[in-house]
Amino acid sequence: QNWKKTMESASNKTLFYDKLKFCRICLDSDNTEDLIKSPCDCRGSLSNVHISCMEKWFNTSSRTSCDICHTEMKTSKVRRSFLETFGKELSKPVLDWSKVILAILMVPLNYLGRIFGYWSYDSRPDSFCNILIVLFLGYFLCKLLFFTYIRWRTDYRIVWTASKDGSE
């Protein structure tokens, strides 16, 4: 008799957890209108995901299969926009030694140009240093754009190709 009550209680809890609606990736239960049934074989509370969370997980993990049931999902690779790739390049916290060397060289060169310009009574005392600064900055801008273009050609994001209602 006790065993029956325990089994009924366990099955009721299972039904309760199956009815809970939350995204299994972000665990958000407030935004349930965007939830879909996951296209994998997971059931119960693990079967609900947001499309945006699933695509973010694909791109973060570089996998296109479910991490629980290992079902392969239908996905495709879409090239990111150049501006998105450029923004990622600008936000990288990489110490570029060429920029440090540029700063170390340009400050003394600028002051030397000003000193020699004043000695020669030139109307534009620091024009040589200004030209050097523009050339160096132009070089680094071209370098940044060139390497961003190279990375952009191989920078893809993975998107889920099934429809929004979960059918493929």
UniProtKB/TrEMBL annotation:
Topology of the protein relative to the lipid bilayer: Multi-pass membrane protein
Protein name as catalogued: Uncharacterized protein
Keyword Transmembrane helix: yes
Signal sequence segment: none
Gene Ontology MF, one: transferase activity
Entry keyword Zinc: yes
Matching Gene3D superfamilies: Zinc/RING finger domain, C3HC4 (zinc finger)
Stretches that traverse the bilayer: 100-119, 131-150
Compartments reported by the entry: Membrane
Annotated organism of origin: Cuerna arida
Record-linked InterPro entries: Znf_RING, Znf_RING-CH, Znf_RING/FYVE/PHD
Cellular component aspect of the GO annotation: membrane
Domain RING-type: 23-70
Domain of life: Eukaryota
Coiled-coil blocks: none
Primary localization class, coarse: membrane
Domain RING-CH-type: 15-76
UniProt-listed SUPFAM superfamilies: RING/U-box (SSF57850)
UniProt keywords, alphabetically: Membrane, Metal-binding, Transferase, Transmembrane, Transmembrane helix, Ubl conjugation pathway, Zinc, Zinc-finger
